[in-house]
Protein: ABC transporter
Organism: Gloeocapsopsis dulcis AAB1 = 1H9
Amino acid sequence: MTSYSISKQHPLLRLLNYAKSYRPQVWTAATFTILNTIFDLAPAYLIGVAVDIVVEQENSIIAQIGITNTIGQLAILSLLTLLIWTLESLSEFIYDRLWRNLAQTMQHELRLDAYSHLQELELSYFEECSTGTLLSILNDDINQLERFLDSGAASILQFITTVLFVGGSFILIAPNVAWLAVLPTPFIFWGSLAFQKRLAPRYADVRDKAGFINSRLANNLSGIATIKSFTAETYERERVLLDSEAYRRSNRKAITVSAAFFPAIRFVVVTGFIATLFFGGVAVANNQLTVGTYGFMVFIVQRLLWPFASLSSIMDQYQRAMASTRRVMGLLDTTIAIPTGNRSLPLKTVRGEVHLDNITFAYNGRTNVLKDLSLHIPSGANIGIVGATGSGKSTLVKLLLRFYEVQDGQILVDGIDIRELQLGELRRCIGWVSQDVFLFHGTVAENIAYGSFDASHSEIIHAAKLAQAHEFILQLPQGYDTIVGERGQKLSGGQRQRIAIARAILKDPPILILDEATSAVDNETEAAIQKSLAMITKNRTTIAIAHRLSTIRHSHCIYVMEKGQIVEQGKHEDLLALDGIYASLWRVQSGIH
């Protein structure tokens, strides 16, 4: 599985299809861009008219409308110039504002859509795709598209308008000489296509290398404590150096091709200019061309040919944008492997009965973690699950939450296959305290209320008290308003775990899952939490996964797992009497030989 899907449709068409709701704004911006380009070209025509007035006087172009006085003609020309310059400034303001606002809006919508789609993808996608690559798409690639819409789209329209307008004027005014100026354009177009073909794969590689370096930096910043503890700073610096060097080399290859474009185009442009200068002058000398028309042609020919020189930067920006579009649209095209069901599950009606019916599951490309496993948990039951690492305990939880999909069998909640249920409602009725606690950068209160965003401050405090967290929270510098730091790094493991328990308590779910929920707390705190849990778990289905058998010894039923199977089950006393795996684990943990 790749980090993102690849669509066969051209990325520009994908981008245009995505922006179809903004078409009125696009058309308006394009119209004013074209008008601005025409107004910008007008001074060259006005210069030609001015020369014609001075040289031809009563026989000039303006004289043909009835004004033969030279001063009058120049006055009209001056007023016309003022009008055109005013319209040019106004149209530039309008198109610039429209394109830039469109770029910001598209950037905002595209990032939001990409992130929203990303949240709906299954956990296995994130296991196979690096965080750095995803961050590169959500930030760098979408920002690249914003830069293209901000100025690149207008540049392309200005180029096309200039070529068509000036080229058309040449053919209309002086068809005998026009071919001299137009002659270089096929060579320039051919060269542009050749450069584009060579640039496209190079910029695709640049975007990939950007993803690699982002991934490296994201991982290293997350694992900075490990890097420091193993004094691996030099080693990691070298790895960043290698990735950064690869990114630089990739960019250098693209730049080599891009930089060669401008000098090549410059040479072709100057040949067209010289040809117009020489042969146009000959035409004037032979009375085949007026002085005004010749002056206009010599001045405007550069406006016709020099835009081709800007093709290098336009094509450069375009190819970067298309490489980014492929990655962003590829992410949006990624199929959601675990779609939500349509069946409703109102929270107040959930009894909490869970039935795992002959389920089989394996992670991508691995052997089965669970095989034909069945387990029935009655409504309101408090069960414990124990077993060696890798026996499949935590996998059961992830399947119940539909983080992964079973390959065979079914999981039922209140007799309904969870694949039929709306994902949001299924997960809303389950409170999960993971062994790997994740806290968000924010206050203690915000982390406890995460998922229960409307909770009052008194409800937050009540949940913290039940989780035995209230006392240590009050001792923090700002109490419940203390910032916990990224991933809760300012708190100890036990403190983070108690906040996670408080978060689950505040959610008040019909089904509560405690996956090693007290593994990071001391014995005294664990004993206090156990007393609270006795009250918390009352009248709700509770699944407690534990290595410490003391935390689940009072469960209604304890299940012992080994290699994806339930090999023992019963109450604590029954399992001790069985003298099997559970009894052996109990003796080791209690110090009985």
The chain has two domains: 23-333, 348-590. The domain at 23-333 is CATH 1.20.1560.10 (ABC transporter transmembrane region fold). DSSP finds 20 helices and ten strands in the chain.
